[in-house]
């Protein structure tokens, strides 16, 4: 499986990684969810080279995760906003944050835990089935069936 061909794989994990599967992309998305929209602000917060940042923003835009909107004409300047497809990645980031806080927390106790916007209380997100409301674990799923030649 070649990295550049992941978007053509039948596996949804491989196809998803073709969009968000590198460290800079996930950090760009984290910043988007924190309200960062402009190129210079991304670069300053991330310490990323202009070339790499431009490449990641371009890929997220072409994948429909971000949309670029002009906010200034002379010189032309753009900001990047999450699309509906991009906003749908929020649970991925929340799950990653919870996993990291559980399995690889900062030793000094200063991990930025997820907090409720209104109360400030710590949140403990869980993945649940929308139909039944049951929590989902690795044991909740059937193994995918191999495709049969006549399907």
UniProtKB/TrEMBL annotation:
SUPFAM superfamilies: Winged helix' DNA-binding domain. It comes from the Bacteria. Gene3D superfamilies: Winged helix-like DNA-binding domain superfamily/Winged helix DNA-binding domain. Residues 113-124 have a biased composition (Basic and acidic residues). It holds the Pfam family HxlR. InterPro entries: HTH_HxlR (IPR002577), WH-like_DNA-bd_sf (IPR036388), WH_DNA-bd_sf (IPR036390). Residues 108-151 are annotated as: Disordered. The keyword Transcription applies. Residues 11-108 form the HTH hxlR-type domain. Keywords: DNA-binding, Transcription, Transcription regulation. This is Helix-turn-helix transcriptional regulator. The lineage of its organism: Bacteria, Pseudomonadati, Pseudomonadota, Alphaproteobacteria, Rhodobacterales.
